[in-house]
Q: What sequence folds into this?
């Protein structure tokens, strides 16, 4: 019998938080919190219900940019040595696509500057580096065992690269 009273109180307590303002039912909520769809449906007065739905429509939509932010951070850190990255940013994307901003000779192989600010040095001696030019889109991906591989659109072959900056 005592358990029934406890269950009854547990059911009635949330209902006690409901306030009746005129014909409108408003559930107590934290300041600044938007009503939920279920709360709007529970309102009996048509004008008040419409105002509640308008309040839902005026609420800011969820930010999709927050989902893209980790990918941008990962692309910025792509190719850096693990010890040079902040601990929270050590997970990487699988590949990076960018356009070549400049190709210049270096002391130990050509250096490729990308439009995102990254600089990569070609460490292999393949023929692909002879075909690289400004404005060309390249894909840099993780190698099978280690390192990174650069592939260029519309050109056959790949080069092993190492990130300089």
A:
């Amino acid at each position: 019998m005592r358990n029934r009273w406890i269950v009854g109180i547990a059911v009635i307590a949330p209902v006690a938080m409901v306030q009746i303002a005129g014909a409108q039912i408003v559930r107590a909520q934290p300041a600044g919190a938007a009503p939920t769809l279920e709360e709007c449906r529970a309102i009996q007065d048509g004008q008040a219900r419409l105002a509640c739905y308008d309040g839902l429509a005026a609420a800011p939509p969820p930010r999709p940019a927050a989902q893209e932010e980790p990918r941008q951070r990962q692309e910025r850190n792509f190719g850096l040595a693990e010890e040079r990255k902040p601990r929270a940013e050590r997970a990487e994307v699988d590949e990076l696509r960018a356009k070549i901003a400049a190709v210049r000779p270096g002391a130990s192989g050509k250096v490729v500057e990308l439009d995102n600010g990254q600089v990569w040095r070609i460490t292999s001696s393949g023929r692909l580096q002879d075909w690289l030019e400004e404005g060309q889109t390249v894909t840099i991906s993780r190698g099978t065992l280690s390192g990174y591989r650069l592939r260029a659109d519309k050109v056959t072959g790949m080069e092993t690269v190492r990130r300089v900056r």
In short: Residues 92-163 form a domain with the OB fold (Dihydrolipoamide Acetyltransferase, E2P) fold (CATH 2.40.50). The radius of gyration is 29 Å.
